[in-house]
């Protein structure tokens, strides 16, 4: 144990942060910022001084700049070049370690998610922990087959020969995660990068600090730190990372930052996967099972991190005469789910930050919107909660219809004919997901055919992202590239073409001098016409 006397500069009554003490200590006491690995911190007051006991010993917190980022990438590239991450055994060992991490720390993970988002334990398990377990399990089951070279047929022009496609890891990968599903959207891409045989750096979101810190500690504790690293921080740290040369970058977040990531990657010709978002529509026809439809929309909106999800239902389109019935059903089911006062419900997540809360309140308080609220609208700034809110037929130029809502506000747009939904959806950038509720088979076919989006789900919401065998990714403004399961392995691999030939049957047809006879024979071979080949061999036309 070491003790450090802080002297009279720290008053006993000063507040002390539970995460970092440096922010509350004056520069007179600490000319350098300090960082504590231990949670065991004890203050004892002696006369006019305070004694700080730390276990283990005090360490300086290093600033993570471009130089540190460069050294980090260099270390990981050396590790990759050594070949250790390419073996099946190493990949399996890391996936099994992740499985162990999940099994032994489920409580800590759900607690961190509650600290960051007040995410209910059930929702945290279903939407984050269990999904990471599923991804890990799928990778362990399929990895051996995924790694096998794929044999392909060859043509007569290369006879005799064999060919195959060999998946090989890209190298050093950067994963920049986001705050709304901070555990799932960190670990799922990392699993993909590992099972493809890469070294990887994870940059979790600073807006979910409890989960970010937990990820850093758990990954350091359970995984191979020579190949898998975590960098915590905010804009400066992310900027330093983006200045480096990576072999692939996966970013989850807004389109605005996605453009910044893509511009940085372009300097090094680094390929990117961008998982962005957009305004995900839900079209509701009048022939549906109303109660089931209402419940599934609620699950895909307010039951999905209070609407703070890139695939959450952003707005509804339905027939004008059907809208009152739909609103009534939503109101009834919302009360069943969250009670008469949803602000007091323990089954709804809170808004992540005061900035996001203020943004959502601004959307609701706009003059064009405030008188269109037909349900909800209550808010509690101290708790960072907004009740489930439905607004009806807001103008197209209202802010709430111009940007992704990312919160518990649900506009309903009414139309005379359900087919009018196509022009409304197509007037906006292509969404990450599009939903349709109907029993009309022709409408289902038309919707799939006419609507371009990252994914489509008929008669439910959000569940498609948890379906094995389906890729998750956007199109145009909602993103590029995809991952999940085998698609993660493919996205973090290079499919290398390999052709094998022997020294036998070395035809002179390909070599100079080029003659008319060689040309005729070559054309016959390329055409694949056996008769022409025979004629050419005998010199007949």
UniProtKB/TrEMBL annotation:
Active site: 275, 310
Database matches in Gene3D superfamilies: Aldehyde Dehydrogenase, Chain A, domain 1, Aldehyde Dehydrogenase, Chain A, domain 2
One GO term (biological process): response to water deprivation
Catalytic activity as recorded in UniProt: an aldehyde + NAD(+) + H2O = a carboxylate + NADH + 2 H(+)
GO molecular function, one term: aldehyde dehydrogenase (NAD+) activity
Keyword terms of this UniProt record: NAD, Oxidoreductase
Span of domain Aldehyde dehydrogenase: 69-498
Pfam families recorded: Aldedh (PF00171)
UniProt similarity note: Belongs to the aldehyde dehydrogenase family.
PANTHER family: ALDEHYDE DEHYDROGENASE, ALDEHYDE DEHYDROGENASE FAMILY 3 MEMBER I1, CHLOROPLASTIC
Protein name: Aldehyde dehydrogenase
Species name: Vigna unguiculata (Cowpea)
